[in-house]
Structure formats: structure tokens, C-alpha cells
Amino acid sequence: MPDYDLKIIKTLEYKRPEVDKGYVDQTLYVNVSEPAIAIKPVDQKTKKVFIGGKGYDLWLLWNAVEPTTHWNDPQNTVCIASGPMGGTPIYPGSGKSIVSTLSPLTGAAIDSNVGGYFGPYLKFSGFDAMEIQGKASEDTVIFIDGIQQQVQILSASGLPENAYDLSTRLTEHFAAGKPRSISVVSAGPGAKNSLIGCLNFTWYDVKRKRARYKQAGRGGIGTVFADKGIKALVVRWDSVTADTNKPADKTALKDVAKSYSREIVELDPKQNEMARIGTTHLVTIMNDHDLLPTHNFRYGSHPQAPNLGQQVYRLLFDPGFDGCWMGCTVACSHGIKDFVPFTGPFSGRKVFVDGPEYETIAGCGSNLGIFDPSTVVELNFYCDAYGLDTISVGTSIAFAMECFELGLINETHTGGMDLSFGNRLSALQLVHQMAAGEGFGHIIGQGVRKMKEIFARDYAADPAVMADIGMEAKGLEFSEYMTKESLAQQGGYGLALKGPQHDEAWLIFLDMVHNFMPTFEQKAEALHWFPMFRTWFSLCGLCKLPWNDIVPEDNKDTKEPAKVMKHVKWYTDYFSAVTGRPAAPEDLVKMSEAVYNFQRIFNLKMGFGRRQHDALPYRAVGPVTELEYESRTERYDTQLQEKCNVATTGKTTAEKLGILREYRQAQYEKLKDAVYQRRGWTNDGIPTVEKVKSLGIDFPEVLELLKAHGVQ
Ligand code: SF4
Questions:
Q1: Strand pairing of 199-205 and 26-31?
Q2: Peptide bond preceding 89: is omega within 30 degrees of 0, i.e. cis?
């Protein structure tokens, strides 16, 4: 007898539509309060303008919420979609799911692009997207069975809390002997008890005979999911071939997919070896360029950083083909077999750890001053099992550690814990506390913005210092790159619609290392093209990594190497081969521009989306403390002399800090001007009526909103 119980409380039988050119043209609506299940058609205009994936999510969410809706209102909706190319097994990186909801951290729409099989299986089961509204009165599982053509809402009791055991249990329960046919989405106790919860999306690893998972990490999506009382989503689908997605031109698809896969197999071993070491190679590269966050983004390098780099993970990762979707030849989703945690509920038990990836290593390692790989692996494991975003966990603990070192908080506030940088036992204890919703960890689990309020209100900590060193913008914690020496990347983070996450723009190397964009106009052009093109992957159900992490051998000799135009052309051919829509490379950017501007207006609807909301903490722009300045005196002195025409001799560090700060903050404001102009926005950062008309997003509600903000 199983030690858990699942009872069906609602069933909808449906007839599964045939997939046609990457779409099924309907979405699934589930309300867990009532409970209710319904199917909604997708009209042609929605399909043309929003494409799929994140575009569909945002449209569904926009229609579900009011400007007054809070993240924990029943009206808030969790939307999940793949995209027209999602579910193609022969083209690398074609199985992503995109999740959106109103974020508990930012109050606006957040989106996360995640691997695992859920999105493609959802589509093949008959739904381009699903939306979940309401709040369940008891633990709930939603089961979408594409084979039996039924959707069920089940009440659940006795299931494990942690996502590691829960996803294994539910895979076994629903598999009917075929575990590869199952994908599970779940959060965990940390998601329930913090604001920085993530979602775990599974796929079944046939070789290792276990459910593996990837995380939709950012913005507290898992927290919303847990707040709705949802224990898990489960989808069941049968086998997948190149035909399952019914591409318009199968021959053209096979040709372009073959070229792409062949190139990756040939070049990855010569370039980044992602099929062997994932994204861990980035640790030493970032460290060498002074870009690896250490000690709450104070510095960009550390002598011990190689302890966390690729040579270690080359030994730790369990070798194997590790694609988070079928047939992805980049195969970068590695893991560690038989890891034995030494703390927490899994202490002494052998577990499989999915990861770590670069962001987790930098966030939970170097940024905390922790250079012991086994602690990073343990933090990675527990964050996933508890449903916590490793990036927000890392950046939030780093902030608390710096506050502790500066004396803004002390052991009477932390419950006796020493939060000095490098204290690995404290970091682990904090994560266990976040999951339990107890102690000082519970406060850290509210994220940096809330911590700043709490520390000022309850501990009399200096708000001005915390405003400078609290690494959040729009309420979201920074992902793990240093931006001080790259104005373009300051824009990449500060102007990102959801908050400082690098998936929208990553321009540090182009700007800082290669100096490819010395003028404001060039930076603005890059801050137009790159966010648009990167957004396109999330409209289509794709992973961005194959685009520019492995590049053609002659790429460096092309006119614009950063764009990897040979690959952009392949993606264009791929899009047309699946959807039957003729397209040129510039059309991909145009598709994204409509959704991107719509999201900016969505921010406006929720009370954000203006110039003031694109602000950055000063630590992202320049050195905050004398210590930081003096760690790189030559660099900053030279800049003052060459860029500000200021003689540095005889000036104190405090004086030089002040002049540099004024200069850099003014540069960032000038960058905003240039970017808003390039994007067709007003000086307050709002899309103009002309812009929204040209993009086909001039819906009556959009025009009314613009008018209410003086744009007409
Ligand atoms: S490149 Fe890596 S993350 Fe992207 S789909 Fe392939 S295995 Fe997954």
C-alpha cells in the first residue's frame, strides 16, 4: 500500500486536436478553487502577434489580472507554454517550457525559461499553453493525460514535501510502466515559506533510471504555485519523433537540424566542452576578467576561484548524454551521482544532484566567499529539493553577509549565527531555515528588497548603505555577473523588463573586453537587438545556449560576430520549416519586439514600467566603498584622469569615489535616453502610440493605458 493518497475530484474528457505546424490552437484553463477545467481556442491574431511560449503566457496573464492584483490573490495566474518549435527532437535545444506569473518579488510579470519535458508533452497532449488560477483548499495535483485525453484535478495527502522525492514518487505513480512518458512540475517547502521559490520541471533519464529536473528559477514563480496549494502538475505523453510536431516542411527541417547538430558535435569539444562540463567553464573565464561576483559583488575575482571551476566538475560530474530535451547535442545538463549531504534531512543519504551550473556556483559559492565545491553542491541540492531559486538565495545571503560584516546587523538579529563571508555552515543552515520558514533564514527568504525594509525598520540599519549594496533592481535579485566596468551591461540588467537577469542581454564581453560599442548609439543598438533576439527563443520554446555558446569556426571573421548570423539564418529557416511562415532574419527580431513592448506596457499596467523603475543599486555601477576603490586604484584613477579630466594627485579616496560616482551615474542616465529613443519609447521609458501601432499591439486596453500615462 502506498503511504500517500490521490483522489480524483474533477475530470474533463476531451478530444485531442492534431498538431499542425507546431500548434494545436487551444489552451487549457484550470481553476483550483472551484474546481474547474476548461479549454479555450487561440485566435489567429493572438497566434500572429504573440507567436507562442512567453508571448502566449503574457497574453493569458494580462487577460487574467487587474492592475490591483497581488501575487497571492487567487486571480493571479501561473501560465506555462512551450512554443511552435518546442518538442522537436532533432534540432538542438528545442524542448523548453516558459512560465509566467505576477512575481511576489517585483509585483509585475516574471518569466522563466526551463528545460524538462513538460511544455512539449503539454502541447502534444493538446494544449499550446495552460493557465492555473484560484487557490486550492487542500494539496492538489493536476494530471494532464494526453494519451487517455483527460485532465484531472486530484486532492493529495501523504506525498513528500521535497521536490526530489515528490517527483520520483509521482513519476512512478502515473507512468504505467513507461516513466519516460511523464513530466512533473513541483515546488517544495522553501517555495511555500519564502518569496524566492522556484519550480522543478522533470524529464526521465533512461540511463540512470531516475527523474531529473531543471528549474524555472526566477522571481518566485514557485512561491505563487505553492501559495495556490498546488503540489504538482503531471503530464503524460507517448513517444516523440520529428513528425510529432507536424512541421510544414519536414525535409527543410531535417536539413537545417542536421547541419546544426553536426556543427555542435564537431566544435563543442574544441570550444567550451559543454557536453562534458556544462557551463562550469565560465567560472574561471569570469574570474580572469574580473567579472565573477565575490563577496556580494564587491569584487570580480578571487585567488581561490579555480577551486570552483571546470577542472573540479570534470571530475565530479557523472559522464553521460545529458540533454534536458531529446536530441539536444549540446547536452549540458550534468549532475553528480552518489553525493552524500552532511546536513539537513538527506544527511548521510546518497542522492543525485542536478547541477551545478555557473550561476549556482557563483551565487552560492564565490559571492558568499565560499570556495569549497562540496558546499556549493550541497546548497544546489537543497535549493532544488526545497524549491528555492539558487540565484536569489545566493544574492540574498551575500547581502546579509555584507550587512553583518559592516555591522548593520549582528548576532542578536541572526539568532547567534556568524554570517561572515565564507561561513559555509551558516549558509547551509540559512537554506534549511528558509525551507522551514524559521529563524533568520526566513527573513533572508523574503529577498533583498524586503530585507532592506526589515533591517532598517527593526534593526536601525542605514538605508542609504543598504540601497547601494542591496543587489536587486525592480525587486529581483541580480544574477551572477559583475557590471561595474560595462555600461552596456548595466543597461542589460537595469533595463531588463523583469529585473536583472542576464537572459535578456549579456553584453559584458562585447562592451568591456572587446570595446565593440564605444558610443551611446552603438550601446543602444545592442540593447535593442540582443534583448529582442534573446526574447525570440522564449516565444518559440527554444533554449538560447546553442545559438552563441558554440560558434562556427569562421564566426570571428564575420561583420558582427556577436550575433552569430550563420546561426540566426538557421533559426530563421527552422522557424519557417516548422510553422510554414516565410521569414527573414530581421523578422525574428520584429516578432519579439511586439511581445517585448507588450511586456513593458504590462509593467505599466501593474504600476511600474517607467524610467524611475529602471534604477540600479550603485554597486552595479561603480565602487561603493573606499575598500573597493582601493582594491583597483589604478583602474579608477586612470578613468578619472582620462574620462573626467580630473587630476587625482592629492585627492582622498573618498573625494575620488564621489567624483567617479557622479560621472558613472550620469553615464547610466544618458544610456537610458539613448536606449529609450532606439526602442521608440518616450523619455520616461513608455512605448509610443506610433510604436504599438506599428507592432500590432494597439489593443483598446493598451491605448487607454498609454493615454492615462499621457502618451497619445
Ligand atoms: S543546451 Fe543544455 S540547457 Fe539547453 S536544451 Fe540543451 S541540454 Fe538543455
A1: unpaired
A2: no
pLDDT for 513 equals 80
What pLDDT sits at residue 295?
98
pLDDT higher than threshold 80 for residue 1: no
Are β-strands 26-31 and 129-133 bridged in parallel, bridged antiparallel, or unpaired?
parallel
447: CB partners within 8 A, 6+ apart: 105, 194, 195, 196, 220, 392, 396, 472, 475, 477
Q: What is the pLDDT of residue 512?
A: 81
210: alpha, beta or left? (left if phi > 0; alpha if psi -120 to 50): beta
What's the gap in Å between 214 CA and the centre of ligand 1? 10
To test ligand 1's pocket by mutation, which of 333, 354, 534, 542 has the most ligand atoms within 8 angstroms of CB? 333
How many C-beta atoms lie closer than 10 Å to residue 312's C-beta?
19
Q: Please, are residues 648 and 685 in contact by the beta-carbon 8 Å criterion?
A: no
For residues 219 and 232, what is the distance between their CA atoms, to the nearest angstrom? 19
Is the separation of the CB atoms in 82 and 119 below 8 Å? yes
Per-domain residue ranges for the chain? Answer: 5-236, 279-316+334-477
Which atom of ligand 1 is nearest to 115's Cα? Answer: 8
- Residue 59 in 3-state DSSP? helix
**Span 683-692, mean pLDDT?**
98
Q: How far is the CA of 315 from the centre of ligand 1 (A)?
A: 21
Q: Give the pLDDT score at 2.
A: 80
Which residue CA neighbors atom 8 of ligand 1 most closely?
A: 324
Ligand 1 centroid – CA 652 distance (Å): 50
Predicted confidence at residue 515, as pLDDT, reads 81
CATH code linked to domain 279-316+334-477: 1.10.569.10
Mean pLDDT of the chain: 97
Q: Which helix (H) or strand (E) holds 402?
A: helix 390-405
Does the pTM surpass 0.90? The reply is: yes
Between CA 420 and CA 408 the distance in angstroms is 12
Of the candidates 432, 422, 429, 468, the one whose C-alpha atom is nearest the C-alpha of residue 448 is 468
Tell me, using a 6 A CB cutoff, whether residue 373 lines ligand 1.
Answer: no
pLDDT digits (tens, 9 = 90+) for 325-352: 999 999 999 999 999 999 999 999 999 9
The rounded Å distance from CA 112 to ligand 1 centre is 14
Report CA(481)–ligand 1 centroid distance (Å).
Answer: 21
CB 323 less than 6 A from any atom of ligand 1: yes
Q: Counting atoms of ligand 1 from 1, which one is nearest the CA of 278? A: 2
Cell readout for 496 is 531588463
- Diameter over CA atoms, the chain: 80
Q: Does residue 264 have its Cβ closer than 6 Å to ligand 1?
A: no
Architecture of the domain whose range is 5-236 = 4-Layer Sandwich (3.60)
Measure 695 CA to ligand 1 centroid, in angstroms.
31
Whether 229 contacts 30, CB under 8 Å:
no
Residue type, 177: G
| 545 CA: nearest ligand 1 atom | 1
Question: Which residues, in sequence order, are CB contacts of 141 under 8 Å at separation 6+?
Answer: 6, 153, 154, 155, 156, 159, 170, 230, 231, 232, 233, 234
Q: Grid coordinates standing for 407?
A: 555591522
